[in-house]
Specification:
Length: 240
Amino acid sequence: MERERIGLQARLCQLGRHRSARRLTEFEMTVRLLRRGVLLGWLRAWPQFTPSAGWIVLLSASVVFYLLSLLLSACERLVKNRWMGALRRDRRGTVSDSLIGFSPSDVLLAVRVAVFYRVRLLGRALLLFSLPALLTAAAVWFVSDSGVSRAILIGGAVCLLLFWLAALFFFWAAREPLLTAASLLTDRSSFAQRKSSLARLDKDCFRLARFSFSWLFLSSGVRFQAKAIFGEISRSAIPS
């Protein structure tokens, strides 16, 4: 019942706001695709790279564009957090309202929020995927060095696949609380509470992951709001 209630509340928050939410999502996806396009372009062009003036200028411009795109994505995340938070509070407000008064200190806060999310996401990925990666490397080395029968090879491959699938599942479950905690960061006060908010959400990670799976059919803005509402309930339900 709680899942349905949160989903309904999220829909109410986003009534009449789907177009703005979709535009924000499309903007972020465009920036992300351009960033990945630059990386893929350099991966293909790297064998032809020479330390000439033209290549160095092109590399420098690509690095500047990549860093600026990361900064733009971080600022967009903070603007979206504030706009979605305003909709949850009074169901008014626009994206323009969230952009007004966006100061240099807010840019710094956006960078700190992005670093908080990315560093912890990387740490969780390394922690959860290190064991399957080590097992895979050891299995490949053992097979190439000694050789095994076909039955053992198939059995080992199945076991490794199960390890990777389990790691993917736990990474998905561990990523949901981090995404939710990051969506609640709107100002310095909420950023100061980021660790306690994430710790509380981590305790409900499997419950949140189950809820998130059932919200997949909702629009991106409603999913965002549903997770944020769950995070606010979790934060208020447990005393500090």
